[in-house]
Amino acid sequence: MPRPADPPTDALLAPYACHEKDSRGRAHAESPPAGHRTEYQRDRDRIVHSTAFRRLVYKTQVFVNHEGDLYRTRLTHSLEVAQIARSVSVALSLNETLCEAICLAHDLGHTPFGHAGQDALNECMRDYGGFEHNLQSLRVVDELEERYAEFSGLNLTFECREGILKHCSARNAATLGELGRRFLERQQPSLEAQLANLADEIAYNNHDVDDGLRAGLVTTRELGEVALFARHHAEVERRYPGIAERRLVHEVVRRMINEVVTDLIDTTRARIEAAPPASVAAVRAYGQPLIAFSERIHSEHRELKRFLHERVYRHFRVVRMTTKAQRVVKALFRAYFDDLRLLPDEHRDAARRLEGLAGADGRARAVADYIAGMTDRYAILEHARLYDPSVPQG
Ligand code: MG
């Protein structure tokens, strides 16, 4: 079947997909895009042109950027997530462009140093409202990007913002109006948003296998404990005896992703057929997510995730790196928060403005915004500038 024309028209989409004609629109009214673009293409383009998107290239996924050039970064991860989601989206007649936009934006709020950085910043922010990277991604597209004369942020559509906010605590959801309502009323997001969420999981689980092997943190033998890996590993060795290790790993990971993605499409199709939702409103009101893995793949995926947690993310070499990273983030926070004069002008102004509005919470939020926006290497350099007297100010 030929791919839908680009830009996709609503007519090619399933009734349960996000149709632009039903969009809840943007916070600031704008005239429609010029004829060659759709509203969701406009969202996607704004994301790709944003400053936060360019910074993803120097932000860690699992391995700190300077540890090697071949590991995934947040940027390559985001591209891989988008690629997986787009394929599934076309297979299910969902809105491919919206799905792509959500995926490209999903990690924009990530701190430097991956989850270690986010945990450290959350700890620093404990008394000031906490820090959630998902909510920060939304904050980036809603407020922090400064590219337009008439509004702050990127002014994305409701559907794109809904997809970016994957998780949210009830306390924060209560402050988000319409966007937060689904977390309080336990409604589902659109299928495009549900898909972006699972594509993220597929991408990082499978690619962390590849990166973990490349870094020498685990071996293919150890991965034999994981059913999903073992099955494809045995098949590749049977078909290609004596195949070189690196090629073998790529073959196995490729086949793992393929199986998981095919399962996701088949399972979701069956669930949609059984439901079947007549519109995106019916998708949102449905009691559970419709985008899903089969029971078997779901549990195999969980097994893989557990393995990665125990053997890769808790490997002493990774823990040494993440501990260092947490020290850097905490030291930066402490220095800026205690003495705003250490901040560059625009961030000091933001801290004073937010402090005027919300007291210490606001002051801390501006510091967290500055730190969360840093790349790994910028955070390391800033730490040296603040704490190492021999390092000159840039
Ligand atoms: Mg991700």
Describe, in plain words, how this protein is organized in 3D.
There is one protein chain. The protein is mainly alpha-helical. The chain has 2 domains: 12-318, Hypothetical protein af1432, CATH 1.10.3210.10; 319-387, no CATH class. It is built from 18 helices and no strands. The chain binds magnesium ion. Magnesium ion (MG) binds at residues 77, 81, 106-107, 200, 204.
Summed up, what is this model?
Helix content is 61%, strand content 0%. With 394 residues, it is mostly helical. It has 2 domains: 12-318, Hypothetical protein af1432 (Orthogonal Bundle); 319-387, no CATH class.
Classified in CATH, the superfamily of the largest domain is: Hypothetical protein af1432
The radius of gyration over CA amounts to 22 Å
Tell me the helix content: 55-70%
CATH topology of the largest domain: Hypothetical protein af1432
Q: Can you tell me the residue ranges where pLDDT is under 50 for at least 5 consecutive residues? A: 1-5
What would the average pLDDT be, to the nearest integer?
Answer: 93
Key traits:
394 residues, mainly alpha, Hypothetical protein af1432, 2 domains, 18 helices, globular, disordered N terminus, binds magnesium ion
Write the layout of secondary structure elements.
Layout: H1 39-48, H2 51-55, H3 74-91, H4 96-105, H5 114-124, H6 133-144, H7 158-164, H8 170-173, H9 181-185, H10 191-214, H11 220-223, H12 227-239, H13 245-274, H14 280-285, H15 295-313, H16 316-338, H17 345-372, H18 376-387
Helix pairs in contact: 1-4, 3-4, 3-10, 4-7, 4-10, 5-16, 7-10, 10-13, 10-15, 12-13, 16-17, 16-18
The structure holds magnesium ion.
The site of magnesium ion (MG) has 6 residues, from helix 3 and helix 10.
